[in-house]
Amino acid sequence: MEPKLSMKTVKGYPDLPANDKINTIHFLNASREVVAAFESFGKLFKPVVYDMNGNIEKLHKHYIQDKMGNQFLDDMLVNDARNRRLIVEPLLWLKRALEMIEAFFTNILNDNSKQEDLRQHIRDAYKCTLQPYHGWIVQEAFSVIYRWVPTRSQLFGQGAKHSENMQYLEMFLLPLRAHLQRLNNLYTAHSLHSTKKA
């Protein structure tokens, strides 16, 4: 049986040198890939997929209104800081979801025991990323969703296939982390963080 994910085929996020801005369309396209990968987890994950896709589309809709002026996500964010619904809030929630996925994949990668059951990994990832911003009802919904996460073998395969997936997963995570760090720095520098719960 083929694994649900083949990290070798995922283009992912481009390298992001320390002083570079985030190219908007490259970021959105890479984020769509992440959502597609998450969609393969199963039907119960559709609410997460729907929410992430919704935020991506809001950002893309704003981007195409002025492709030159919105070439970089950094500029879009800062220029539209006053109108939070257009850029600040959708990007913030997308960032938080990506942080959860990054934490989940990192937990899997760092698990030397290579345990099959990944529920604890996604539970821990959710707890340190999205949970603080979710109300009780959403938290309860998530507690049902992550009980149905596929096993390690279902997601990444076994033997040589698993090893290859882990190698490419590590390569995928490095630029993703750089993008998330850059976004966190921007939100902090411009005091754009929101404490509003979903």
Helix and strand arrangement:
Elements: H1 24-39, H2 46-63, H3 73-79, H4 88-110, H5 119-128, H6 136-145, H7 152-156, H8 159-189
What order do the SSEs take from the amino end to the carboxyl end, as H and E? HHHHHHHH
DSSP E strands, number: 0
Distance between the termini: 38 Å
The biggest beta sheet is recorded as: none
Return the structural class: mainly alpha
Count of helical stretches: 8
Q: Which overall shape is indicated by the principal axes computed on the Cα atoms? A: globular
Please state roughly what percent of the residues sit in beta strands, choosing from under 5%, 5-15%, 15-25%, 25-35%, 35-45% or over 45%: under 5%
Helix content: 55-70%
- Low-pLDDT segments: none
Q: What's the average pLDDT?
A: 90
Radius of gyration: 17 Å
Features:
mainly alpha
Outline the structure in words.
The protein has 198 residues and is mostly helical. The mean pLDDT is 90. The chain is globular and about 50 Å long. Helix 1 runs antiparallel to helix 2 (46-63) and helix 2 crosses helix 4. The chain is built from eight helices and no strands. The chain has helices at residues 24-39, 46-63, 73-79, 88-110, 119-128, 136-145, 152-156, 159-189. It is 61% helix and 0% strand.
